[in-house]
Amino acid sequence: MYACGCAGIPAGDCDCGGNQLDALGDCGGSCASDADGDGTCDDIDDCVGALDACGICNGPGEIYSCGCAGIPIGDCDCDGNQLDALGICGGTCTADSDGDGVCDDAEVPGCTDPFACNYDATATDDDGTCASDDAIGDCGGACTSDADGDGICDDIDDCVGTLDSCGVCNGPGEIYACGCAGIPAGDCDCDGNQLDALGICGGTCTADSDGDGVCDESEVPGCTNPFACNYDASATDDDGTCETTDAVGDCGGDCSSDADGDGICDDADNCIGLFDACGICAGPGPVFDCGCEGILVGDCDCDGNQLDALGVCGGSCTSDADGDGICDDVDDCVGTLDACGVCNGPGEIYACGCAGIPAGDCDCDGSQLDALGVCGGTCASDSDGDGVCDDAEVPGCTDPCACDFNAEATDDDGTCSFLDAVELCGGTCAADADGDGICDDEDDCVGTLDACGVCNGPGGIYDCGCTDIPETDCDCDGSQLDAIGVCGGSCSADEDGDGVCDNAETFGCTDPQACNFAADATEDNGVCFYDDALGICGGNCPGDADGDGICDTEDTCDGTLDACGVCNGPGAIYSCGCEDILPGACDCDGNMPDAIGVCDGECEADENENGICDDLESGLCGDGTTWVPSIGLCVGVGGDCPTDLDGSGETGASDLLIFLANFSLSCEEQ
């Protein structure tokens, strides 16, 4: 039954012949190293690493705007196009005279104000025809006010406000219990009815002797205990016939115990418990992953398979370097596609994608900010600085606490009204202490009628309404607590006192830290398992210090391979990767600094060591002067003023300094 007959594969081996996995995962293979994990052994691999998009082993790939080069100066893309008058790369617009982002030959005249009622969304040039809605919504109309918003201009409106249900302009409406009046004293409704014996308004019950809410003439005898097995839901008076269910569910039966809840009374049951899948009374059953045995260490199923690079049990993928769930041998991009579809590319890194927003503009379409700070907006002015364009201001009540608040108003016109104590807009009620919608000066009860109809009375304040729960009972129906403390419950015994009735106990592993923890178990069966260092339930791996999913007893590198393939190595730590710059050189290509310290520069001499190449300084001398490298100055030659050594047109201190610097030098040295 084991992989090798009578025993499993020895730890560290991959088959029963004593072989081990080589670098490619072949059992007994000869490959010693596959540093890049591409499935090709390093000793025959043309590239130990990755070919970039240009086919260079471990190269940087296409890192410029146009792939291998930048955009040429003067162009705006890689196809040789230039920006047109609208700033569109390769566009055909030759002129945009008003700078509004619309080509001159595409301008459309019309109303361009989006707040105007005759706004033309297709217009690009405003022709001065814009109009606005008047107070009743007529485009270009003359109505200045419609305070009640009824669509009738106030100067011709018969009621500026609202007619209530009684036809009164801005009246309170029907605010009393019966419309315009309250319920008459002694009645219980507006039709003159009174309460009957059951407290029903207009009811016909004349008597309820036991006060149970059932009219005497409608009483039904029977068992009224809802926990009894012969409970009669239609009964209103208990006649003492109630029965209880015995341990096996027989109503009125005499079985006192059925500990395993199998419906067989314990005094006749040959197994007090459950037969498991193996036929053992109260046995644990097949509790291992593979039935009676656990999955072998290193395997991922009961057939001896292992996880491949994609986590597939028994799969054939050897590598998924970028962890995208696609095996590297079929992956079009081992890495990540950027927003431009380039494998491992930088993506769109500028504000407008491939370029920044032009100076003076506020977006990538050439727009500017208007008076409201809207990019590309059409508002010319906002005099009061309230964020609403002057030609779009709306007068009205702007106080959000007012009952006639106009959410569309932008300028307050002083018309605000407020709710009174009974929520009437502009009303005069000063107080409604009980919040019942009736002003206190008209309210028959300033407060609340309790369940007994008493103004501000205590109501039913006992557990059972007007009475308390009888002694020894646990509710108002005469129930008692069962063995687990349930009021009216049917549990007769709970021997271990765990709050689970003996006939409802469930066996299993109750340790929440175990990997086979059974959340529904109430009694521990003593068969708990735990994850080993690799997370295998019931496994035997003692440790995985580097967390690489390989048990320390089998791991060839307890740590991480660096970029050079060294276990826990420092990686490429030198200036040029794994090597330092050569002595005397100034870069990793072996170049040397020139006379002024420029790496691989072209300056051959700097005699005065002033950081300017001699052949550049000599070109600075004017007519009648010549360059002297030893002193780093231009000096005069011949002319009408032989003492003007610096050629400035006059003799001064600088000429003396030049003379002293050349004193005692031979003419050849000068």
Number of helices: 2
Number of strands: 10
Termini gap: 103 Å
Overall spatial form: flat
* Rg from Cα: 49 Å
Reported for the largest beta sheet, the result is:
2 strands, parallel
Query: Which regions contain 5 or more consecutive residues with pLDDT less than 50?
Result: none
Structural class, from helix and strand content? Answer: little secondary structure
**Which range does the strand content fall in?**
under 5%
Mean pLDDT: 82
Summarize the structure.
The chain is largely without helices or strands and 670 residues long. The chain contains two helices and ten strands; from the N terminus they run ββββββββαββα. A two-stranded parallel sheet has the order 1-2. A two-stranded parallel ribbon has the order 3-4. A two-stranded parallel ribbon has the order 5-6.
